[in-house]
Known about the structure:
heterodimer, A: Immunoglobulin-like, Maltoporin, Chain A, 5-stranded mixed sheet, 8 helices, elongated, B: mainly beta, 5-stranded antiparallel sheet, 10% helix
Amino acid sequence: MKHRFCIYVGLCLLLFSTAANAQKKTDTLVSGTYHNIPVQQFLLQLETKTGYRFYYDTLMFDSVKVDLSVKDQPLLNVLDLAFKNTAISYSADNQKNIFITRGLAVQSTLPQGFFVSGKGNSKDTLFVKGMNYLGDTSGKSQNATQENKLYVIGEENITNAPGGITVAGYVRDAKTGEPVIGASVYIENPRIGVFTDQYGYYSITLPKGRITLYIQSIGMYDTKRQLLVKGSGKMNIETQQEVMTLKRVIVSAEKASNVKGLQMGVQKIDIKSIKQVPVAFGEADILKVVLTLPGVKSVGEASTGLNVRGGSADQNLILFNDATIYNPSHFFGMFSAFNPEVVKDVELYKASVPAKYGGRLSSVLEINSREGNKKNISGTAGIGLLTSRINIEGPLIKDKSSFIIGGRTTYANWLLNLLPDEYKNSKAGFYDLNLNINHQIDKKSSIYLTAYMSSDRFNLNSDTVYKYGNQNLSLKYKHLFNNKIYMLVTAGYDHYDYDISSSRNPIYAYSLGFDINQGYFKTHFNYYLSSKHTLEFGLNSIYYKLHPGNYKPLGKESLVVNDIMQPEQALESALYLSDKYNITDALSVEGGLRYSMFNSFGPASINNYRPGVPKTEDNIISTTQYDKGKIMKTYHGPEIRLSARYALSSDLSLKAAYNTQRQYIHVLSNTSAMAPTDIWKLSDPNIKPQFGDQVSLGLYKNFKSNTIETSVEVYYKRIKDYLDYKSGAILILNHHIETDVISTKGKAYGVELLVKKLTGKLNGWLSYTYSRTLLKMDDPNAGEIINKGMYYPANYDKPHDFTIIGNYKFSHRFSVSLNTTYSTGRPITLPIGKFYYAGAERTLYADRNANRIPDYFRTDFSMNIEGNHKVHQKTHNSFSIGVYNMLGRKNPYSVYYVSENGIVNGYKLSIFGSPIPFINYNIRF
Amino acid sequence: MKILLCFSFLLVISIGCKEVYNAPITSPDTGYLVIEGFINSGDGPTSITLTRTTKLYNAGNIIYEHNAQVTVEGESNESFPLYEFGNGVYQSQPLSLNNAEKYRIHIKTTDGKEYVSDFTPVKATPDIDSISWKRENGGVQLYINTHDPQNNTRYYQWKYEQTWEYHSTYFNSLKYTYDPSTQEITGVDYKYPDAHVDTSIFKCWKTVNSTSITIASSEKLSQDIIYLPLVYIEPATETLSILYSMNLRQYALSQQAYQFYQKIKKNTEQLGSVFDPQPSDLQGNIHCTTNPTEIVVGFVEVTQEKIQRIFISNSQVPDWNYRAGCYITEVDNNKDSIAIHATGLLPGTPSKVTPFGTVAVFYASEERCIDCTKRGTNVKPDFWP
C-alpha cells in the first residue's frame, strides 16, 4: 500500500511539472477560425500548424465540435478556449506531445513514465490547470471509486443557493452493490459529518474548495475521497468490504466513533460480529447477541424476550425492515426467528429513540436485512445439528434491482424420537422465509419490497398442538427530490397468530386461536437544511385489528361451545418533527416531538364500572354497546425526544437525553418467560395506555486512535400504567380482562459500562451493568395491593450483569471466540411455609419476588474455520465448532416447590445443564 | 411445555434439567390457620379440619388446631356446633339445612381470634353417572362420567380412595428361632405345630388416598357433562393383580371455589415448566375478623357429597402379567448357612424335611414377597366382597 502510494505521489508531481513546463516552451502562435468543425479535424489542423502531436481517443471525441476564432494565441490558450466548459482537458510534455482526455480515468490510465521531466516543485497545484475532467456533474451522479483521485463536484460558475453546497449520494459496497448503512461521511476541518441512512444515502453540506471526505463504516475499509467542490452535486461512493482480503491493509486510525454521534444508548452490531458469538446449537442468533449488550436482559435461557433498561418484553418494538414482529422466536424461545444469512445488521435504541419510532416504552430493535447482490447471483447455505438454512441473492436487472430470498427449517424430530417413550409422539418444527426485492426506478426513486413469514408447530405426545407464526409484507418507495430532501413512503401489513388445539379428550377437544393484524402507512421526510440543521418529519398510522380469542370445538364429539371474544380495533397515528442542530463543532442537540393519538373503535361492548371502587364483575354498572366505526376512546399526547452532545475533545464527549414514550398495545402474561400463548391487548376505555420517560447521561471516550470505544451511561426511568395481573388472574378468553389486571408503576435505574474494540486481531466487547427495576402497586381501588403497596423487584431485575464477548483472529481463516456472562439470579417467589390440604402438603406463598434464584454464570467457546480464500472457486466453505456452556454449569432457570405424592419437594430447573457441543457448516456460492 | 424444553437437551447430552434443590431460605414462623372441609347439606355429618401452616423445611408432623369453637351459622342466626374428634377434625351431627338459605362457618380459636367464611348458598351435587375404564397402552385408565341434566352445576371436585387386594408371592409356614441370650438366629421352625401356612400375612389390602386436587368444569361446553380421565393404573402392577376398587366422592363447587382450588393446584402441583405462571397468594373465602390482614387458607361452602364405588378384578384385564419380581433361595437350616445365604430374607416354606419332621432345607425370600402386611393391612375392609 505504502509503495503504491509513493508511486501516486511521484506521478502527480511529475504530471504537474509537465503541465507547467509545457506552457513555457510553447512559443508557436496559432491563428484561425474554426467554425463548428469536429474536434478531430480541429486537432489535425493544429498539428500541421504547430508541429505538436495530439494523442487522444478518436471515439471519445467524435461528437464534439469546436466553434472558435483566434488570432496569434499560444497553442495552449487556444486549447483552453476550445475546451472551455467541456469535460475535455489536456496536458503537454516537453517533446511536443499533447494528451487529450476526458472522463474519470485520466489519472490511473495515464501510462507511467510518460512525463519524465521531473521538476516538481510546487504543492497541491497539480490539478488546478485545465483538469476539470468531470465538467458538468451537477445533474448526474458520478461513481467515485478511488481514493487519490480528485473528483469535482458541481459547476464553478453556478451561484449556489443559500445554505451552502450539498453533496449527496449513496455509499455502496463495491462488490455486491448493496448499500452501506450507518456509514459515517465527514470532513475534518471544519468538522461536518453525517451518517448514511438505511439505504446507504447521505447528504452533506460542504464548503467550496478542496476537501477530503472520509467514509467509515463497520465492516468496510475506511476510505476517503478527494473532492473539489464547486457546487451541489451527487456522488456515489463505493467502498470495499473488509472481509476476504488476504493482504494486510492499513486500517485508518480514524474510526467512526461513538464519541461523535448525537444519539445515546444506541448499539449497533453487524452480522459479522453476531456470527462470531457462540450460541447453543451453533447458529448465529441475533437476539441472543443483543442480550449480551449492556442494559439488555432476559428472564432466562429459554426466553428471547428482551428486557431493555427495566422494560418488559412487550415494550420493545422489533422491526424487521419496517415490519413489526410480534413473536421474534422459534421453538419457544430457543432460536430467534431471523435468518442470519439475510440479516445485515441490528440496531438497538435504548435511550434516545428517534422521533420516527414510537408505540413502545423501552426500546426499538431495528433489524435490517441485506438488499441482495446487485452484480452476480450468489448464495449461502448452512447446516447445523438442528437447523439448516439457505439464501440466494442476485440481480434482477444488473446494478438496478436485486433480490434476496432466504429460508430456514429445522429437523429436530430426530431429537424428540430419542426421548423416553412417554414423549415418543412429540413433534416439533419451524421454518421461516424471507424475500426482499429492491429496484431502482430511476436516479431519484427506488422501491423496496420485504416479505417475511415464520411458522412454528409443536405437539407434545400427540396431545396439545401449538402453532404460531408471523407474516409480514411491506412496500417502500423512496424518492429524492433533490440533494437535500428525500421522502420515504411505506405501506405494509403485519400479522401474528397462534393456535392451540387438543383432541385427546373428544368431549373437550378444542382449538383456541388468537391473531393480531395491523396495516400501516408511514411517510417520512428527511431534510438536510444546512450543515447545521437536519430535519426529519413525517406521519405514521397503524390500523390494528385483534382477535383476542377464538375458542372452538374440534371434531364431531366435542361439546365445546364456541367462545369468540369480540375483536378489538384501533387506529394509532403520530406526527413527528425532529431537528438535529449542530450549534458549534462541539455542541449539538437534537430535539424531536412526536404527537401520538390512539382511537379505539367499535363495534364492541364495553363494561362500565362503578367509579372509585375496584373493577370487579360485581361492580359493573352497565355495558355500553358501540357501533362499528364509532370511536370509543381517544388517548393522545406528546412524546418528547431530546438529546445533546458536547465534545470535550476529539475523543471525549458528554451526552444527555430525555425521552418520553407512550404505548397503546400490551401483552397480557403471568408467566415470567415470554410465552407463545401470551395475548396482546389494545388499550380501550378500561385499559389505559402505558407511559414512560427516561433521562440518561453518558460519557464517551475513545482510546488508541478510536479503535477502543468506551462509554458510561446512567439512566433513570419511570413507567406508568404498566399492566400487571392479579393473583390467579385468568388472561385467556376473559371477556372482562380489566377485572384481572392492575396498573402498576415502575422505576428503573442503572449504570452501564461498555468497552468495545471491533478491529484488530483481538476484538469484542466487555460490558457491565448495574441496574434495578422495581414495580409498585398501591392503588387501593385496584382491589388488590401487591406486597403491601411497597416497591418489589420485577421478574428481570438482575442488579449485576457482566459480559465479555471476545474474538481472536489467529489468521484470516481461523479465529476463536469466547464469551462469558455473569448475572445475579432473577427474582422469584418462593414459599414462606407449607400446609396440609386436600391430602397433601402444599406450599404457601406471600410476597411476590421476594427471593432470587442462584447467580448465573456461563462460558461458551467456538472456533471459526474458513476454507481457502481463493477468489475463483465455485464455493467457499466455513465451519464453526464450539461448546455452549463449556463449564457445564447447571445454571438455574427457576427454583420451584411442588407437591408430589403428598410431600413438598424443591427443585432447580436448568435449561442447559451440561456443555452443549455444536458444529455448523456454511457454504457460500 | 416443560417436556419440550427439557426436551432434552438432555437427550443429546444426558443432562438432567431438573435436580432436587432446597433454596437456602429461612421461612418465617407462619402458623396461619388452615381450614378444610365443607358444610354438608346432604345426609352425612359436616366435618372441618383445622391445621396451621408451618415452616417450609419443617420436618415435623401436621400441626392440628385443638379446642377451637366451630359452628355452622345460617343467615337467619341458626347455629350448629361442631365437636372436636381429635387430630383437628371437628364434626357435627347431620344438619338439616334450608336449601333457600345461606350458611357459613364460624371459628373461634383458643388464642381469641375469630374466623368466618362468606355465606354461601346450598349447592346440590348431581349423582355420579359412572366410573368407567378402558385399557390404554396396556394399563387401565379410569374415567369419571357425570352430568347435570339442569346444566347448572358446571364446577366439580372429586376425592377418591383406591383399595386393592394383593397376595404375598410365597406361602409362609416357618419362623426364625433365636438364641434367647444373644438374639442371634439359630435356625427355622414351624410357626404352628401343625405346620399350617400363616394366612395372616398372605392376603392384604392397601388403601391410598388422593393426594392431588381433582377438579373439572364444563363451563366451556354446551352441556354440563364431565368425561374426565382420573387415574391411570400402570400395566402389570400389583394394583390389579387380584382385585381393585375405587371409591369416588363428588362435590359440586361454586365458581369461586373452583378458582380457589385451581389456584392451589397451579401453585403446588403444576410448577416446573418454563412457562409457569408465577405462584400467587391464596385468597379463600375465610377471613380473620379480629385481624383482617392475617392470611387464612381455606374455602368452605355448602355442598353435598355423592359417592360411587367400582371394582375391577384381574380376570377383567387379560394379559395383566403381574410379576412381583420375587426370587426364592434354598437355605440349609443351620445358623451359619442362614447367616451367609439368608441375611435380610424371611423363611417361607420347607424344601426338605428330615425323617423326624424337622426342616432340613427351607425356601427363603425377601420380606415383601412373604409378608404382605409390611406394606398394607391384613384386615379385610368392610366393603370388600
